[in-house]
Amino acid sequence: MATRTIHLPESSYELLSAEVQRRGLAPDALADELLRTDLATSDGEDLDATLQSLAELTARLPEIDGVLLARDTRAQLEQRGGS
Prior knowledge:
- It is a single chain.
- By secondary structure, the protein is an all-alpha fold.
- The chain has one domain (10-79).
- 66% of the residues lie in helices and 0% in strands.
- The protein is built from four helices and no strands.
- It has helices spanning 10-23, 27-39, 47-60, 66-79.
- The chain starts with 9 loop residues before the first helix and ends with a helix.
- 0% of the residues are buried.
């Protein structure tokens, strides 16, 4: 593994430090994960192709009635004694 130094603005370093604490990771591991996630593309596809794939996936998902889902969830909670 090569060692590299990255200079960050103080505000970015604070964000990185907070996320390191939240996730319980080493700073280098989190920085590597964030860089790979942000910079890598799946199978060399560009952003437009990735967005098109996402649109196709979304089109295949079933429609959900949010109001009906909320009512059913509320009814289930009330049956269990919740409010």
